[in-house]
Automatic annotation (TrEMBL):
Ranges of Polar residues composition bias in the record: 392-403
Ranges where the record places region Disordered: 30-51, 392-412
Name assigned to this protein: PDZ domain-containing protein
Family, per entry: Belongs to the peptidase S1C family.
InterPro entries, alphabetized: PDZ, PDZ_sf, Peptidase_S1_PA, Peptidase_S1C
Hydrolase in keyword set: yes
GO molecular function (one): serine-type endopeptidase activity
Length: 412
């Protein structure tokens, strides 16, 4: 009986063992199971050469790549569209006159400008460079609008010292550009230059702010005393003068005025008047017909590398006082010949031009604090800013930076 029981139970035992093994395999941890190979997706960037519809696949890939830059491209497009409507092409008939006032010859020059509004006076105005319309009368100036219309200004306001001119328009229903804050335009900022290079109206070029606080002796010799230019590599060429330099918010941050070039065209170095300086001149011109500049009654001299140690400085900076006017704010405040002004109202003074701009744009009658380096010590001095014309007529002209190479600077 026992054999019979053992023999009969054998199939049942085998069946139970099989089921137990199957259950054990199914319950094994995942780490113990073999890992299936990962399916590799084909590279969709560029198809293999020779495949059918390869061009279509490339264009599809480019379309996907372009979507990543669409917003940047759209920003440039919108800035160009909104600003171009406010940019004008200026043609000025100029008269070369003799000392007796007779016209020797006439010729045309062209430039650019931008339509703006003022805080001081109602209406619309074209902000441009003085050298674009210098020597021209009202009837000599033609303003060509974006829509093809032509206007003539109803009034002209000029300031040679800043190379700013303002043309009053006879209409008040045109697109106006927004003015930004040029103090925020740091090197590396993306910018667009809009204007009429070589007469090609409403052209747009793109670049960055390359540097700040540039000056040029050639422009000083031509009467431009307020120099604090923005430098840009956006293409600026003859005909761009007076046109706007704008940021990617569509705000005007500069008025293009000159290019550094040996060949007369763009070589990657252009200069723009910061809009804060241009607007300061414009508002005064519109308020009183002239620009009143501040002064404290001193003559200045640049500090060169061979001088700074002798003057007790750690590097060439500030500006050296070469003369002090009698009964001037500077003399009354205690400034002496030989002092080096290193700070103005808390701002470090970089060079002569930097101080000239800060003093001249300070409201007349305002008290300011200067710090001068004297015998190795920093001495604070307080002075009251007076009118430039009243104080500087008997003083020598301020010192100027080193002369640039002949034919280097071009007025576009």
């Amino acid at each position: 009986m026992a054999r019979s029981v053992t023999a009969a139970a054998l199939p049942l035992t085998l069946l139970l063992g099989f089921l137990l093994g199957l259950a054990t395999q199914r319950g094994a941890p995942l780490a113990a199971r073999p890992t299936p190979p990962i399916a590799q997706e084909p590279d969709q960037t560029l198809p293999e050469p020779g495949l059918e519809s390869s061009e279509e696949a490339i264009y599809q890939s480019l379309s996907r790549q372009y979507e990543q830059f669409y917003q940047v491209n759209r920003t440039f497009e919108l800035v160009s569209k909104v600003v171009s409507r406010a940019v004008v092409h200026i043609v000025a008939l100029k008269r070369d006159r003799t000392e007796e006032g007779r016209t020797r010859r006439t010729y045309e020059e062209s430039g650019s400008g931008v339509i703006v509004r003022s805080d001081r006076r109602p209406g619309q105005f074209v902000l441009t460079n003085n050298h674009v319309i210098s020597g021209s009368e009202l009837s000599d100036i033609q303003i060509n609008l974006h829509d093809g219309r032509m206007l003539r200004p109803s009034a002209i306001f000029r300031d040679e010292d800043s190379d700013v001119a303002v043309l009053e328009l006879p209409v008040d229903n045109l697109p106006s550009a927004r003015l930004g804050n040029s103090d925020e335009a740091v090197p590396g900022t993306w910018v667009l230059a809009v204007g009429s290079p070589f007469g090609l109206t409403h052209s747009v070029s793109q670049g960055i702010i390359s540097a700040r606080g540039r000056q040029e002796r050639d422009l000083y010799d031509n009467g431009v005393q307020n120099q604090d230019f923005l430098q840009t590599d956006a293409a600026i060429n003859p005909g761009n003068s007076g046109g706007p330099l704008v940021n990617l918010r569509g705000e005007v941050i500069g008025i293009n005025t000159a290019i550094a070039s040996h060949g007369g065209g763009n070589e990657g170095v252009g200069y723009s008047i910061p809009i804060n300086l241009a607007r300061w001149a414009m508002e005064q011109l519109l308020a009183s017909g002239k620009v009143r500049r501040g002064a404290i009654g001193i003559s200045l001299q640049d500090i060169f590398p061979e001088d700074f140690e002798r003057l007790g400085l750690d590097r060439p900076r500030g500006t050296l006082i070469s003369a002090v006017a009698q009964d001037s704010p500077a003399q009354k405040g205690g400034i002496r010949k030989g002092d080096v002004i290193i700070r103005f109202n808390g701002i470090p003074v970089n060079n002569t031009w930097h101080l000239i701009n800060m003093v001249s744009t300070t409201p007349i009658g305002q008290e300011v604090e200067l710090v001068v380096r004297r015998a190795g010590q920093d001495v604070p001095i307080r002075v009251t800013v007076a009118d430039f014309d009243e104080l500087t007529s008997s003083l020598p002209q301020p010192g100027t930076p080193a002369t640039s190479p002949d034919g280097y600077l071009v007025r576009p």
